[in-house]
Amino acid sequence: xxxxxxxxxxxADAKLLSYIEQKxxxxxxxFDSVVDVxxxxxxxxxxxxxxxxxxxxxxVPNSTLLAKEQKRSFEEATDACIDKLKLQLQKYxxxxxx
Length: 98
Hints:
It is built from 2 helices and 4 strands, in the order βαβββα. It has helices spanning 14-25, 74-97, and strands at residues 2-7, 36-43, 52-60, 63-71.
């Protein structure tokens, strides 16, 4: 699985990048045919939920799964996106079996 991480208009530190890489790699346990993953990190205008936005685009055969979250930290937003993608992968896997 190929993973691409882009931080838009800022430089992400190595600790954050390795954290995201570790979390994304666990998605292979739910569905082993993941083609590639693109992660986009942004700092948005501040609101009540926080200003750190993470968008994860997961390419699987014949489909693309997408999750976007905005939280107070990139780690929280990444965890929320991963949880959403786990559910989407489980639904996709059931759909493929049928």
